[in-house]
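Dear U.,

Please find below the material for section 3 of the report. The protein was modelled together with MGD; I have listed the sequence and SMILES used, followed by the predicted complex structure.
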Amino acid sequence: MTKLDSLIKNKIACEETGITIKKTCCDICNHYSHCAIDAYIKDGKIIKIEGSSDNPHTKGTLCPRGAANRQYIYSDERILHPLKRIGEKGEGKFEKITWEEAYQTIAEKFNRYKERHGAHSVAFMVGFEKWYRPPLLKLANAFGSPNYITEGSTCQEAHKMAWELVFGDLGPADYQRTELLIVWSRNPVYSNLDNNRGFYEAIERGLKMIVVDPRITPISQKAYMHLQLKPGTDGALALGMAKIIVEEELYDKDFVEKYVHGFSEFKEMVKEYPLDKVSKITGVPEAMIEETARLYAKTKPAAILTSASPVVHHVNGIQNYRAVISLVALTGNFDIHGGNRVMSWSYLHVSSFTPCNEHEYVGKKCDDMPAIGFKEFPVWAALNPEQGQAMMLPQYILEGKPYEIKAMYAAGMSHMMWPDTKYLLKSLKELEFLVSTDLFMTEVCKYADIVLPACSSFERCDVKIFPENTIQCLDPAIEPLGESKNDIEIIFDIARHLGIKDEKLNMTNDEYMNYIIEPTGRMIEEIRSNGGLMETKYLSGSYEEKKYLKSGFNTPSGKVELLSTLIEKYADEYGYDVLPIYKPFSEIRKGYEDSHYPLIMNSGSRKPQYMHSRTFRMRWIRELEPIDLLDISREDAAELDLKNNDKVIISTPKGSIEATIRVNMAVQKGVVHMYHGNVNADVNQLMDHNYLDPISGYPGFKNFPCRIDKKNVETTGGK
Ligand SMILES: Nc1nc2c(c(=O)[nH]1)N[C@H]1C(S)=C(S)[C@@H](COP(=O)(O)OP(=O)(O)OC[C@H]3O[C@@H](n4cnc5c(=O)[nH]c(N)nc54)[C@H](O)[C@@H]3O)O[C@H]1N2
Ligand SMILES: Nc1nc2c(c(=O)[nH]1)N[C@H]1C(S)=C(S)[C@@H](COP(=O)(O)OP(=O)(O)OC[C@H]3O[C@@H](n4cnc5c(=O)[nH]c(N)nc54)[C@H](O)[C@@H]3O)O[C@H]1N2
Ligand SMILES: [Mo]
């Protein structure tokens, strides 16, 4: 082999090989953990990917998805041209059209629906992707529609609601400085790659952890104690702990007296949660509950690390989450170093003191019509005035009540964000006009009248702000594939064609980025000429403890609310409890409680390789394990006579799907686990669309009854 052959084979970037390195980033997962990437380019194509070791935040790390990025970008399923549907809805028959024809059709249709049925009859939807949300919200508002809906209808908004109901603000855990950390429903090793290093460093320094999780996780194995509760019993566990803390007078009397509203009612209520009862509900041994309550109350400072989703993915989710964080209130661990701190946020919710102009795009209310779900979920409406509750979308389309949705612009929408996916697809069939912008030809695209091709993060410019107060400007590593475009440009183009005269929607992509980062004191041209990465010039402050001393709490009473005065407003009409009461399954799963479905399905717990619906199309990822894997405990497997790789049928009152068995010691008896977002084994179709939390509208993804039958074997009782 010649030297040149060897350089080419090893994909070395140098003059001889013609291979260059472009700095870019992966945006397959969470916006705050996008990994910086060195893309090796030859003849306009990405031939190799490495993590950028010079990035201060991600420091060269790449996860399995990041490493397999080329299979995402160059997937056969990429949409390369604007398309118009020529077959039946769902059939997938399209023909190419020009961008101009697409824009003109969209503008004509949207303006006609607005004229005939009101602007609210047109909805604007964005799924998991975050980076083009500010312009999309602005577009909905400028068009006049209150119906801007997002994946927040199943992800971050409910936990935010719970924090706002109790404290008026979010309180993330300060795990770096705490003396005791309760990891309550979080698996950061799988779900937050960018925090892993800091997390493990804290563990190495001797961080004492108690984990509250139905499964064994990498973190639970490092913990002092693991409370392996039954899914969805978080409220009972928290209230049982609260009872001990209150009755043994371990609570922070000064904090409670000065700042807490509803303590006496709460104190009365927790009497209903004696240790033996709580242990029976949760499956956690009494001694563990007692020790956790005492340790958490006596150790100062102590913090609770929660997550956006698992605790609220239950039909009593908001109340359970409120119960958990009421422990923070009882112990006065709120907004202190080492406790649960109120942080400052930068562009796209990155925890940082770097100021930005994102708020200029966000949260302007447009008309008086209530958005989707506001009538059904008034507490959601009060706390999320700028977005509707998307779980109600199919009902609005199909039933036309309280009003009909006629058309929708969906940018990155997967039907598998919803429970009861067949019902969602049925509603898309009825929708009169649908535009779907995506990278890939998804099921939702197949139901669309117009499909628009979005480009990937490797094919566009973007800015990133990192918690280390640095700012990065990313230029395209390659040209957009086919005729695909940056979503922000698509949104601005649609705004212009709709005849909207809003200067914030009438910019180039570079002008937009400069506008967003202007308060940092840097402009993209300057960052570019400095190699693409710089420190920000201005910071908006530094962390200050106990900000409530100056400004109170941002709740209706100005206090920490164990009794919610906001919920109180709707309590009679909607049957809400003002206190965070735990409801047993027999009460909340009405119509589901059936001995025929003896197992609990806990769907969607994160895996290191998957990211919702988007990673199943990547070969390296798909080949890591059977894509329809169902994790089951050794006890249940033995009872059902199942072994690894056996094929089974999972059934619920809604339907059945097939799966492949993995007997997993991380799983507790009575609970089975399956990942979501897989079009070929879609667990969400097993759930009812009405199986929702009455306050947040969140689906009970983490606890619905099911049964397992061995395939091709006649069974009678499921278990
Ligand atoms: N690799 C990967 N990372 C991701 C994602 C992904 O799809 N893949 N998705 C991102 C998104 S959108 C989100 S919202 C986050 C979620 O991030 P995490 O919440 O950290 O992830 P999960 O695995 O959903 O849940 C964490 C833990 O909660 C446990 N759990 C399940 N049900 C219950 C319950 O009822 N009570 C309690 N106490 N614990 C329970 C699970 O066993 C799991 O170990 O992850 C983000 N990061
Ligand atoms: N059973 C069950 N269901 C769940 C969950 C669970 O735990 N269990 N978790 C819920 C949670 S927490 C979340 S966050 C949701 C996530 O659910 P979704 O929002 O549906 O997430 P994805 O499937 O990742 O992405 C949606 C679409 O965005 C497209 N996309 C990716 N990048 C871009 C882009 O730059 N531009 C455009 N236009 N499109 C793009 C993808 O190709 C995909 O089709 O799922 C929810 N659903
Ligand atoms: Mo999420």
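For the text of the report, you could mention the following: Confidence is low (pLDDT under 50) at residues 715-719.

Regards,
Y.
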